Amino acid sequence: MTEGLPGFARFEQFAVEVNGITVTGRVSRADAAGTGGGSSKPALLLLHGHPETHVMWHKVADALAEHFTVVAPDLRGYGGSSKPAGEPDHSTYSKREMAKDAVAVMEHFGAVRGFDRFALCAHDRGARVGHRMLADFPERVTRAMFLDIAPTLDMYAATDRAFAEAYFHWFFLIQPAPLPEDLIEANPRAYVENIMGSRYAGLEPFPAPVLEAYVAALSSPGAVHAMCEDYRASATIDLEHDRADREAGLTPEVPLRVLWGAHGVIESQFEPLALWGKAVPGATGRAVDAGHYLPEEAPAEVLDEILAFFV
């Protein structure tokens, strides 16, 4: 777990056992908005991206806690959450299993705070988990917002040289173990700082304690393997699940808002709103004046969007 980080004054840390693993993170205190009870506020699940942890929400978390019961977990394999060894078919890190984790976490807090359903805001890898959640658990999610992704199946299908160069890590991390594990474990800091620092805004949006938290998380035993398995799953079993949904004509009827960085790869390489409109009919969205890490690069704009869409 992380201590002394900015932006979580209204939160307490948690570690809960769900789906055969331990999930860690932060949840807003029941009295975070001074209302005397979390059950009076709707629930909001925040899911983070790569190579980060739930800490990525630090610039918007306290403001969100004024309006919501906020639950911000670390995905399995990330942060303080369990990092089980991957199976040969990579199913341990399928987005289906990761979605089950997140839903179980919300069931845990819902039993205490008095909510049955929840809103979802998710970035990057977390949004891929969120997409699977809409397919497998549409009855649990009231509304969803995805930040800076296009559907995984469409991104792989449209891969060309420009995308492969911009998102080289997609193809590096899926190489058979232990090559990527060995190389990254030799210098986790270099991986974090180069992956994040090479994007539009560089490292400026990440305060030193936050960046150190990301480096420390990736330096923990099993973290690099888990990260690689997350990506290996996305290139294999997750595509099987996505193709099966499309062949069955599954289109979740959950209101969806998508935001992406005007200076990022999603903007330059894809047509995100058109792609999401096919996957989730009625999806709306727009570009934000940022690169990939929207909540850390453009927190005020993201906060405004969240409040406008969910409140």
UniProtKB/TrEMBL annotation:
Alphabetized UniProt keyword annotations? Hydrolase
Q: Name one GO molecular function term.
A: hydrolase activity
Q: Which Pfam families match?
A: Abhydrolase_1 (PF00561)
Question: Does Phosphoprotein appear among the keywords?
Answer: no
- Annotated ranges, domain AB hydrolase-1: 42-298
Q: What is this protein called?
A: Alpha/beta hydrolase
